[in-house]
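2024-03-11 09:14:02 INFO worker-7 job=invfold-0412 stage=load source=structure_tokens
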């Protein structure tokens, strides 16, 4: 790697967990992306990519949840899909002591890409591993990797508040991924953990599948 004999370095996961003799067998597995850095908190000089493998057939992801939406007894199911996405933002912002900001934008300017629904919040953000695990449909506790982190890790339901504020508004409980693919054909999640300088981006596309 062109390292000088007296140069210090660390090897970390994309989650910035340092690889040591004690955790090597737990964290270093086939397909895991690693960083070679001068320090754990070193700023990355360029963007990196990490591949996510799916075990289920892609139809399990892009078509699951459809029954719940189409069986909504004549109601317009779109608000329920949006509620799933807002629910994630409510969970992410539940511990903010200041102003909780959640924006919903409908983008129709096709010069900037295809029409889209954007949900933006000032929540705590997700690590690369949390984004990875969000992408895996119905991730089983029996198949989780050793450094598994839920995208809702650390979430504690707030004291009784209106339902619209307590991250409990999802109607069908089918989750954000199914809501995304009910609304459109692809999802792009961009997240920066509150205690990190890294920005993580996840793209799920039916066309890519």
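2024-03-11 09:14:09 INFO worker-7 stage=emit residues=209
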């Amino acid at each position: 790697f062109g390292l000088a004999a007296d140069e210090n370095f660390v090897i970390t996961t994309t989650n910035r967990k340092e690889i040591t003799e004690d955790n090597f067998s737990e964290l270093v597995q086939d397909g895991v992306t690693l960083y070679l850095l001068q320090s754990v908190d070193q700023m990355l000089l360029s963007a990196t990519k990490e591949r996510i493998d799916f075990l289920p057939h892609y139809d399990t992801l892009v078509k699951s949840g459809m029954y719940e939406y189409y069986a909504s007894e004549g109601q317009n199911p779109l608000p329920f899909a949006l509620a799933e996405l807002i629910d994630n933002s409510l969970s992410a912002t539940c511990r903010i002591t200041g102003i909780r900001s959640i924006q919903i934008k409908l983008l129709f300017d096709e010069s900037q890409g295809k029409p889209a629904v954007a949900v933006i919040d000032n929540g705590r953000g997700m690590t690369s591993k949390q984004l990875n695990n969000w992408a895996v449909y119905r991730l089983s506790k029996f198949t989780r990797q050793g450094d598994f982190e839920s995208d809702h890790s650390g979430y504690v339901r707030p004291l009784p508040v209106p339902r619209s504020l307590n991250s409990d508004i999802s109607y069908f409980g089918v989750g954000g991924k199914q809501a995304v693919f009910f609304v459109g054909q692809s999802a792009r999640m961009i997240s920066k953990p509150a205690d990190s300088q890294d920005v993580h981006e996840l793209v799920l596309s039916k066309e890519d599948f």
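2024-03-11 09:14:09 INFO worker-7 stage=report msg="The first strand starts at residue 10 and ends at 13."
2024-03-11 09:14:10 INFO worker-7 job finished
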